Amino acid sequence: MITLSPTPVLETERLTLRAPQGSDWPHWRSFHGSDRARFIGGGPDLPEGASWRAFGHVVGHWVLRGFGMFVFTIKGDDTALGMTGPWFPEGWPEHELGWTAWSPAAEGRGLVAEAARAARDHAFTALGWTTAVSYIDSDNLRSIALAQRLGAVLDPKAQQPASFDAPGLVYRHPAPGATA
Fold first, then answer.
1. Fewest C-beta atoms under 10 Å: which of 18, 54, 85, 180?
2. Any domain includes 150
3. Is residue 95 part of a domain?
4. Which among 83, 101, 115 has a CA at the least distance from the CA of 13?
5. What crossing angle do the helices spanning 111-125 and 141-149 adopt, rounded to 10°?
6. How many domains does the chain have?
7. How far apart are the first and last CA of the chain?
8. HSE (CB half, 13 Å, CA atoms) of 9?
9. Does residue 3 fall inside a structural domain?
10. Residue 111 belongs to some domain of the structure
11. In 3D, which of 120, 178, 169 has the Cα closest to residue 145?
12. Is residue 7 within 8 Å of 62, Cβ to Cβ?
């Protein structure tokens, strides 16, 4: 198995959060080819080659920025369930905390929220972030609900990435030390 190193591994009560690895590609591709991906760039109609490049962007972010999205798994089972974490592609106005649930097994049990809290704590402590936003499609009701559950509030004055096809919502996460 080839992995990025050195990258942190985070643990919560139920989850392991780690950098993406090559063995995650089939799980990403399955997610990216499904309706679950309708709110992210390209959505489920993205050709396989473009999906491969998008996955490469996720992996490469770690190399170029020194941080990136964590793949989350149930402790003791390395099957990728989704991804969450700090995200800051070139040209974006602010640091983002993002998330995707790749598998239905990741939903309805609070796993994405648990993973996102751990990733946000990491961004605020280890990376020294003082603020973070989540860019969310206005039709993505589940993601909006998760942002609110995490204590994030709608910030209509926040700038969005110029690369977005359509305007969406920006949720600002609570400052470090705030309860959520």
1. 180
2. yes
3. yes
4. 115
5. 60
6. 1
7. 37
8. 10
9. no
10. yes
11. 169
12. yes
Global pTM exceeds 0.85: yes
pLDDT in tens, 5-62: 689 999 999 999 999 999 999 999 999 888 888 888 777 788 888 889 999 999 999 9
Q: For position 137, which CATH number holds?
A: 3.40.630.30
Is the bond leading into 6 cis (omega within 30 degrees of zero)?
yes
Of 85, 100, 96, 98, nearest to 36 (Cα)?
100
Residue 72 near residue 20, CB atoms below 8 Å: no
Cβ 88 vs Cβ 65: under 8 Å: yes
Which of 7, 21, 38 has the alpha carbon at shortest distance from 80? Answer: 21
How far apart (Å, rounded) are the C-alpha atoms in residues 74 and 136?
Answer: 25
Report whether 172 contacts 158 (CB < 8 A). Answer: yes
In terms of residue numbers, what domain contains 62?
Answer: 10-172
Phi/psi zone of residue 62: left (φ > 0), alpha (ψ -120 to 50 degrees), beta? alpha
In single-letter form, the type of residue at position 121 comes to: D
Half-sphere exposure of 2 (CA within 13 A, CB side): 3
H or E segment at 122? helix 111-125
Pull the structure tokens for residue 55. 């996955």
